[in-house]
Amino acid sequence: MRDKQKEEEVFTNKSTIYGPVKSWRLGMSLGVDPIFQTSTCSFNCFYCQLGQIQDITDRIKTYVPTERVLKDYENLLKEKPQIDVITFSGSGEPTLAENIDEMIAGMRKLTPHIPQYILTNATELYLPQVREKILDLDTIIVKIDASNEETFQRINRPAPGVTLKRVLEGIKALKKEYKGKIEIQSMFMPLNHKDIDDYIGIIKEISPLVIQLNTPKRPYPSEWHRENRGNHAKIFDYKVTDLKTLTPPQAQELEDKIRKETGLEVLSIYR
Ligand code: SF4
Q1: Averaged pLDDT, groups of 10, the chain, 271 residues long
Q2: Distances (CA, A) of 12 to 20, 52, 126, 130
Q3: CA-closest residue to ligand 1 atom 8
Q4: How wide is the angle at C-alpha 123 spanned by C-alphas 119 and 129, nearest 5°?
Q5: Which atom of ligand 1 is nearest to the CA of 91?
Q6: The whole model's pTM is what?
Q7: CB of 26 closer than 8 Å to CB of 181
Q8: Is the domain covering 2-268 a CATH 2.40.160.20 domain?
Q9: How far is the CA of 1 from the centre of ligand 1 (A)?
Q10: Pseudo-torsion of CA 85, 91, 96, 97, nearest 10°?
Q11: Residue 136, SS3?
């Protein structure tokens, strides 16, 4: 049974489109992988579900031809799956794909009724041309795990030259130009839990629509496995490391404090 499940998982992942996978808050989310060939990201987060990132870079280029992604999407649509949202994410940072705007437009043309989301680490949003490429998305979910440069380096382990300052400036610039919804997704663990007051200060400045609190419940794989894109099932036959998470009472306390001090909507993976 386990082997069959794993085979199906790998089969699904041989495309630049994967899933749909059940997201704890988005429903059936269809993943789009604009990176695909290897894991490539401007971060190398120590909790990344993809494992150790193979190419840690902030180089923007075409990683997969747009035609390939749209073809994979059209093929999947023939199976008539339930899709509540499309999420650009995949094998790394999706805004590193120079042609992401073409993918957004092409998929919009094929299925104008399906909302499009992106999960981004926001490292490239300081560039006006990158912000412009994603303005047509319905929701942009940005990652903020740290509230100072030292913790940023320890958790997100970015490519050379990438700083928290650059990330926050990019998000603020996006906020001025973008008409859709901005959400913040944060991974909390003992390492950044203590910085909560500074984190709340940052959140207040950005004032997102929603804050999603997460904790690294999935173990960290030692190496990249494409099938881990959006994989919420526990099918691990390779070396993984369990990570330190917040306990449910700690997460509850955090959630309550953020909600009370910001007045914003806060969602937690523990609820
Ligand atoms: S930003 Fe996302 S894809 Fe990149 S290393 Fe962090 S968790 Fe992995």
Answers
A1: 48 78 86 94 94 95 96 95 95 97 98 98 98 98 97 97 98 97 95 93 96 86 69 60 85 94 92 72
A2: 9, 22, 34, 29
A3: 48
A4: 90
A5: 3
A6: 0.90
A7: no
A8: no
A9: 30
A10: -70
A11: coil
